[in-house]
């Protein structure tokens, strides 16, 4: 005979499946299984196993999104290429205005060689 705890665990599993299908969008997932968004957040705070499952799902979603972004870059999508460079190549100067990389003075040189014997110190 199923208990209330079995019913609750079944609802949590439905929520995890709904989160996977909605790529982690809580409002969509909760609406699909007809629970309040707050219920999901209460479970996150009170059930360590549920929280681990949700965090694992977040990694799955990030991997999925990164694979889609990579595909767009390979398809020569200029906007996605610029976005990926801004995110992943900041040290090479690809960033938003005012988003400058500076060397860590304790571990990296603060002198930039300009060539022809010229350099600048930061």
Instruction: Tell me the number of strands.
Output: 2
Could you list the spans in which at least 5 consecutive residues all have pLDDT below 50? none
The fraction of residues assigned to DSSP E strands is 5-15%
Number of domains: 1
Shape annotation: elongated
| Total helical elements | 5
Distance N to C terminus: 72 Å
The ordered string of helix (H) and strand (E) elements is: HHHHHEE
Query: Biggest sheet, in brief?
Result: 2 strands, antiparallel
Helix percentage range: 55-70%
Based on CA atoms alone, the radius of gyration comes out at 23 Å
Mean pLDDT: 84
Helix/strand class: mainly alpha
- Major sheet: arrangement of strands: 1-2
Written overview of the protein:
- There is one protein chain.
- The protein is mainly α and 122 residues long.
- It has one domain.
- Helix content is 61%, strand content 7%.
- The chain is built from 5 helices and 2 strands; from the N terminus they run H-H-H-H-H-E-E.
- Strands 1-2 form a two-stranded antiparallel sheet.
- Strand 1 and strand 2 form a beta hairpin.
- Helix 1 runs parallel beside helix 4, helix 3 crosses helix 4 (48-74) and helix 4 crosses helix 5 (78-88).
- The mean pLDDT is 84.
